[in-house]
Amino acid sequence: MSPLQQTVEQILSPDILSCSPETSVGEAAAIMSSRGCGSIVVIDEAGTAVGIWTETDALDIDYRDPAIRLMPVSQLMSHPVLTVPHTLSLHEATALFRENAIRHALVTGPKGYHGMISLTDIVLNQGTESFIGLRRVETVDAPPVLIIDGSRSLPEAMQWMREAGRDALVVALDDGEYGIVTQRDVLRLVTEGPPDQPLGGLCSQPLVAVGRHTSLLQARRLLIARKIRHLGVVNDEGVIERLLGFSEILRSIEQEFMMELQQVLSERDKALLETRQNLLLADKVFESTLDGIMITDGDGIIQSVNPAFCRITGYGSGEVIGKTPRLLNSGRQPGEFYEYFWRCLRQEGFWQGEMVNRRKNGLLYTEHLSVTAIRDPDGRCRHYVAVFSDITQRKQAEERLHFLANHDALTGLPNRTLFMERLQSAIDRASESGERLALLFIDLDRFKLVNDTLGHLAGDELLIMVAELLRERIPAHGTVARLSGDEFILLIENVESVRQVAGLAQSLTETMSSEKQVSGQNVFVSASIGISLYPDDGTMADILLGNADAAMYRAKERGKNTFQFYTTDMNASALERLRLEYALHRALAQNEELEVWYQPKVALADGSIVGAEALVRWTHPELGPIAPDRFIAIAEESSLIGMLGEWVLATACSALRSWRERGLLMGRMAVNISGRQLKLGGIVETICRILDDAGVPHGSLELEVTESVAMEEGSGMIDVLHRLKEQGIYLSIDDFGTGYSSLAYLKRLPVSGLKIDRSFIMDLHRDSDDAAITAAIVSIAQSLGLDLVAEGVERVEQRDFLLGKGCTMAQGYFFSPPLPRAEFEALLVEQAGRRPCR
């Protein structure tokens, strides 16, 4: 039923708070205070309501006289009691309340008193969301706020309220905040006697306030949610200007709502005049004028619509008459929906349910629709009558309630309930796919200090700020939630490595530990993070959460502002890799600690140096020399490999140019290049630019690609290798023999050389299998016309075997280990000195 048609009987409170005329004022006040009621009806022995005593009446009492509390309430009550019939409409009741300036009325019926109705009941049931959602608090005609100092007494506040005709005062507290004292607080005087303490200790605090631009709908919802009757209104500078209560809201919307009622009734009268020829049909169509009504013929052609239809849909009657209801179709209902819809109409003559349609302006709306088939005496369907109401706001409210039930009201993040559901779903998916999950339990350090020093509003502001930071940094397939207080939880799916999780945790601790401004104050708040992994640390949602919580407390015990894995060895490994990654970043940025060493490639026939391989070395100032396989793997995983590779290539080419200009090394410079480098955009152009900047011929560079990388199909690797070959760059396959490559595929590669892996060379002098494999690789290279280099030669027997099989070049410790540039250059100078003069 429309709010326009509601009666007081439908919203009244059936419980009548009452007392006898002999009841003392103190007893009456105690009853009202215990029941949280603003009035009490005085009923005599005959059961007749002889008066009413309200919170407003309590203002007129001088409580400094202790005899007042013993006085019968009949001497102070208001009378006669205003009564209204149970059939009175809400709007008639509203007008009556406004004319008599009252807040309470007794509802009567056939069997006596039915109950009580208050101004608050009316405001809560007006159904005026469409009006007050558009109006702002600043448009309400309310008197300026009265502020009383917190050092004053409650009797003084009563006198202010009585003289000013107010039902509440704002109380200025010593700490600069505000509280509020209302008529309800006055009841304490009657019940307990005059209090000794000043208003600052008696008032309700803090004062709940809203901005002047807040909508009346939001203000009303806040009043209901907080179970209060007044809100402070602050201006743009944060200064309290007014107090807003239920009575002000009612006064502000009543006039506008009555205008809408008048317009609706006018539209209804007009429609009734236009359809006077068929009174029965008109009665069905306009029995509820706030609901949209559409009448079609038996074929579904629209014959008539009411004004509410036009208001809801945005279409004028002339735009729809003669057409079908399909012009409202939103496309949200599938074909099966309409098949069932028409089957019900044809078989049963009635359908009712919810439907999403589209207004003329393109916006969607949800309606509750009832369609009835009107049949003639012969049972033939002559008309369809559709009656619908716009329930969009109700649906949005339901969705909002569902959201609030599953989300944190302050930050909008999922709450514990929703998070645990998502965690369980993620565990189920990971169990099927064999993937890993990570939980990061985040607790803010020093948050309590912010709350205690700057107040809860500042704490809330900080929590909102942290929630936004976490939203921005959450990876794909991740969920962030607020569990409670300053505790947040992050779920990461599709975890590839522990290092990935550690990197994210490190990034979060660095982000959180920055200085932030809250309530105009700079604060420093860090975070402690505990990490648990699925399935490593548990396979059940609550166990994973508990382990992440335990790891978080371990992080706090270790000094805060850090992270800890639940498993100890993961902590050590992750921290070491992060430390090395950071140090490698610094070494590349400062061009320190890193060096390029060179190992000679020699001709097996005479041991002369015919080329060199550039090898990167890193000496950490604290950890000493770092093995290449350790830091190169870190470079690969952290995307530093591109920067490192360019630096090695540029350094090696610079040295090669110097040696070529002096005639010391005319052979090729070999540089290893990884698969990740080859997949970088513009890698061919980058290599050519480095060669041109160094001023060395493209053919003097040899790029060594591992066999496994060269054999990757579908990655575009062969195309990149061909482009490098076209630029004149020499390509060779490193570690040949370890990748199980197809010889047919090998023939397709644009390579000019092979390097026998050291694993076959090291034991060929005593292992017949290694000797046979090495001999086979030499034979393959010769048959394909490829150059061949054996790496890892350390013994004379190995050299002699290779030379005997036809291998012409090698490198290894038998000839020279990798050397710093100066020592390698000395070898070149020494070799040049041994050359015969010509």
From TrEMBL:
Residues 12-70, 77-134 form the CBS domain. Residues 284-324 form the PAS domain. Residues 351-403 form the PAC domain. It catalyses: 3',3'-c-di-GMP + H2O = 5'-phosphoguanylyl(3'->5')guanosine + H(+). Keywords: CBS domain. It comes from the Bacteria. CDD domains: EAL, GGDEF, PAS. Residues 577-832 form the EAL domain. GO terms for molecular function: cyclic-guanylate-specific phosphodiesterase activity. Residues 435-568 form the GGDEF domain. One of its GO terms (biological process) is cellular response to nitric oxide. PANTHER family: BIOFILM ARCHITECTURE MAINTENANCE PROTEIN MBAA (PTHR44757:SF2), DIGUANYLATE CYCLASE DGCP (PTHR44757). NCBIfam families: GGDEF (TIGR00254), sensory_box (TIGR00229). This is Diguanylate cyclase/phosphodiesterase with PAS/PAC sensor(S). It comes from Paludibacterium paludis.
